[in-house]
Each structure stands twice: as C-alpha cells, then as structure tokens.
C-alpha cells in the first residue's frame, strides 16, 4: 500500500511542477497519466500493484466527473450561451439520439454475439462526450465562442441525459418480458433529469447564500475559504444520487448557477475545486492505465477495435453534421465539432455500472468502452492543439 502511495504522491508532485507548461503542449494530461499507469502497472514494469475494485473505480470516476462538471459549468460564459444556444441544443436534442441510433445500427452489424438490448446498451454507454480530454478546444479563445460553449454545454449535459436511458435498458435486461417499459422510461427520465436540476439549483442557491452571509460576518478564515465550493459540488452530486436523480445533471446545473451568482469572483473561488478535480482526474487516469486496461487487454478483438474507431468517427461525426445543418456553420466547423466528441469519465462510470449487472455480453461491452476511451485519449489529446490552429487559420 505504501509503495503505491509513494509512487502516486511523487507523480502528483512532479506533474504539478510542470503541469502549466505541459498544458500548452500537444500532449494533454490524460495521455501522460494513462501512459504512466500503463508503464508502472502489470502490463509494464509492475511497480504499481493497485487492487481497486469496480466500486472503488466507480466512486473515484464519479467524484472526479462531478467536480469537473461543476467547474466547467461555473466557468461557462452564459452571455455567449444565451446568444448561441442553438449549437448545444441541436447537439443534445438531435445529435445525441441520432448517435445512439447509429451506434445501435453499426453494433448490430459488427457484433453478432450480442443481443439487440446489449447493443443498445453499448451505444448508450459511448454516446456521452468529455470536454476535458480536448480541453484546448473549449478554453482556447481563438476558437469561435459559440463552438467552445456548444461543446462545453453538450459534454456537461449529455452524460446526465444518457443515465436514465442506460438505467431503463438495464432494467429491461434484468426483467425481460415485463410490460410497462414506456411508463418506466417516463419515470426514469423525469426523476433523473428533474430531480437533478432541482437539487443542483436548490442546494447551490442555498449554499451560495450561506457563503455570502457568513463571509460578510467575517466568520470564514482564509485557510477555509476554498473548502466550501468543492464540498458544495460533491453535495450536489451525492444528494441527487441519493434521492434518485442524476448527480451529473445536479453538478452541472449547480455549477451554472454558482458561476452566475459569483460573477467576477468565481475564478478565485473555484481554484480549490479545479485543483481537486485535476488531482482526482490524474489518479483516475493512472488507475485506468494500471488497472482497467490491464484487466481488459486480453479481451480486445478486431470487432471491438473496429467499433471503437467507428464510434469516434462515423457514429459521432455523421449525426453532428446532420444536427447542425442550417445553422450557417462551414463544413470544416461542423467536422471540427463532430471530431471533438472524446469519450472519458462518463463512459468509465457507465462501464462499471454495466459490469456490475453481469450481462452475458458484459465483457465485450466493457472491453469496447475501454478500447474506445483509450483511442480517444490518444487521438483527441494529440489532435486538439493542431486542429484548433488549423481552424483559426481557416477562419
């Protein structure tokens, strides 16, 4: 245990010293973290001997995603979003359903050993995107503001929307032949999304008001000033999950409200939340490389590799291209938005959820998700800065 702790602590220390410079390079953090886990894990030198189970990996990924969603939402430019809501609106309302449907169709062709329900589950698991893996795209101000905010808002909300769909499919798989699927779907969607929004807004509104009151009284010391916000982000996620809603929706909507309430002070107040999220992301990707990939490497087949590549290209890009028709975007801009749909933390969480269900094709489903995420880390990480530069030149 202490050997693992030493290795991880030293890696966090060393990376934090050079993180600012590395963030400006074509190699993003996720590539470095995953490569470190692979190099020191069972597939490499074997120094890291992590024994994390599915529940621990899920908890780590969920907490990381909650903090990332909260900070990304809080840092959003709501003025730009109000002017250009058409892009994320189209991506979520048209692009996301089309992505799931196309993923389902391609999965039927590629995987002859999976049931139709399992293929639908796979398509849903790989539909959410993760803006953090292409951070240069959503933070570089040379990218058009509507494109930046569109990708950021899409990645913040699509995982929460996919949660009730995934749970519905898993419920049908657990109770085959039972009726009432439409009513179950309605309850899941209303409960997950509705409760998530209510909890995120209510808890953040109350938390921000209390923070303001106690700050005016002078009761908050400097050493504790950075603690309430990450605690609030985790509370939004956890309470929504506890009550049966989507914690991801709660974290994202809570972050939007906090950013609007904090205004010009938000960047200073979010420093600890961003730092905590970045540290947890580092550990998550190291665990992904050292544990998750090592456990699934033997199950990778040519069908899994083919579907993973199609998931990052055709299955993502064609629906986006169709969804954005008529918005006045150039073809290269629509392809740019379509390409930057990286798969990350949400798909890891979904993979662990499906793994716990012990479906007949569960190994294939999880291995496909892991393979897709691994390809995404490399492809989107290496292409982010060059494609941003190319888009800027064409603009």
Walk me through what this model shows:
It is a single chain. With 395 residues, the chain is mostly helical. It has one domain (2-394): Na+/H+ antiporter like fold. Helix content is 77%, strand content 0%. The chain has 18 helices and no strands. Helix 5 (86-110) packs antiparallel against helix 6 (116-125), helix 8 (145-174) packs across helix 9 (181-217) and helix 9 (181-217) packs antiparallel against helix 10. The protein is globular and about 65 Å long. It starts with a helix and ends with a helix. The relative contact order is 0.18.
Q: Determine the number of helices (DSSP H or I, runs of at least 4 residues).
A: 18
CATH architecture: Up-down Bundle
Mean of residue pLDDT values = 86
What is the top-level CATH class? Mainly Alpha
N-end to C-end Cα span? 52 Å
Which spans of ≥5 residues are poorly predicted at pLDDT below 50? none
Q: How many distinct beta strands?
A: 0
Question: What's the order of the H and E elements?
Answer: HHHHHHHHHHHHHHHHHH
Helix content: over 70%
Number of domain units: 1
User: What coarse outline follows from CA principal-axis ratios?
Assistant: globular
What is the CA-atom radius of gyration, in angstroms? 20 Å
CATH fold type: Na+/H+ antiporter like fold
Instruction: Provide the β-strand percentage band.
Output: under 5%
